[in-house]
Specification:
12% strand, alpha/beta, 199 residues
Amino acid sequence: MVKLVFLGPPGAGKGTQASLIADSYQVPHISTGDILRTNVAQKSFLGIQAREYMDKGDLVPDKLILDMVQERLENSDAENGWILDGFPRTVTQAEEFCKKLLSTSTNENETEGEKAKSGNSFYVINLQVPDNVLVDRLLSRGRQDDNEETIRYRLQVYSQQTQPLIDFYQASQQLITIDGNNSIETVTNALEKTVDKLT
Ligand code: B4P
């Protein structure tokens, strides 16, 4: 069963690679950034609250994100695996996710071996890319929140609030680091080799 979290700074290619790997392994690609952007476009209650944070480059408050992810993971398409792109992004999100995942995702049909290997466990893919490459990539993407000032601020937010997750998942031996400073195809190949070994 493929259960992966994609971690990495803004522009590391989380969305790009998560989408390709989700297609290859036939699991849903769950991007918190995409769900938030859809809500912003629809001017939903969540979108109205999230927008002010996203436009500045800040993280959206944990509570809003946790409710949103829990609701999405309850969809039947997520029963047999998922790729989470951009979540968890804070230690609080990671801790709460772990508690909720352990309490809700146990599949009764799994053997003990399968449970140990995949049932409640997942791996975390850390895509590593130098800051100067990230800034160039995001400036050429040109999304609403991709101006230089906001990008630099998002990189700061990443190092303060998300980078601690690298130690968090290293300690639990869930972390796998992949060099994201290569062509999209090279990174995809490296990821597929890694996922094949895990499944
Ligand atoms: P996200 O939508 O997660 O976006 P991102 O971090 O900016 O980009 P990503 O790493 O996915 O890069 P991509 O593949 O697109 O977050 C946006 C905002 O949402 C956050 O700032 C925050 O406000 C909010 N948010 C989301 N999740 C949250 C959470 N859990 N908690 C709180 N707030 C949350 O790649 C970028 C560009 O590089 C693309 O143009 C791509 O084509 C290019 N590219 C990718 N790989 C490449 C490669 N190998 N070579 C060359 N170019 C490449």
